[in-house]
Specification:
The protein is mainly α. Helix content is 75%, strand content 0%. It is built from 8 helices and no strands. The longest helix is centred in the middle third of the chain and has 36 residues. It starts with a helix and ends in a 10-residue tail after the last helix.
Length: 178
């Protein structure tokens, strides 16, 4: 068992992994994140490492596959956002005041950080309990409650600013402006 531990020692490979990650990510911080994610994945999958295999080659493969998975995930997210934007641009909203208000709320909701937006969506829109939402997101209930609280505070703060900005855009039509 002890010889297996020494054979799976990745410390000596960190320099090479970081260099390769920098060439893939083209950004120092993203490269560090990539190395971290790859090492976590390698640790989780260390049972798949063949005892007589080349650790360096295996770690490079794990790093490369982690980068490709992240790249594909970002591409898919970009496509989803583009499709959502296309759909949003083709929708003609009715002129009723409630539709305008809902659009303002939607815009505020979309500016929330992803972690707050997903927490608020699961609880407020999907109607899930805090326990269910926390389970889906894989976070403690306290963290979920904190994210929801911050999201609601942001929404309230921006809601308070809306009437002032609307009043600033009003102008007199068909009357005298003395």
């Amino acid at each position: 068992m002890n010889s297996q531990k020494t054979r799976f020692d990745v410390i000596g490979q960190l320099g090479s992994l970081r260099r390769y990650a920098r060439s893939l990510a083209r950004n120092e911080q993203d490269a560090e994140d990539l190395v971290h994610d790859a090492l976590v994945r390698a640790y989780e999958k260390q049972a798949s490492f063949r005892p007589n295999g080349n650790l360096r080659t295996w770690l490079f493969s794990v790093l490369h596959n982690t980068f490709i998975d992240g790249f594909r995930s970002r591409q898919a997210e970009t496509r989803r956002i583009a499709q959502a934007a296309e759909t949003a641009e083709t929708v003609q909203l009715p002129s009723q005041e409630h539709a305008v208000r809902l659009d303002q709320i939607r815009q505020m909701f979309e500016t929330l950080p992803e972690e707050q937006r997903s927490a608020l969506h699961l609880v407020a829109i999907e109607g899930l309990s805090y326990e269910e939402a926390a389970g889906i997101l894989g976070i403690p209930i306290g963290t979920l409650m904190s994210r929801i609280s911050r999201a609601r505070a942001f929404m309230r703060a921006n809601e308070g600013e809306e009437p002032a900005s609307r009043a600033a855009n009003l102008r007199i039509v068909g009357g005298r402006d003395d």
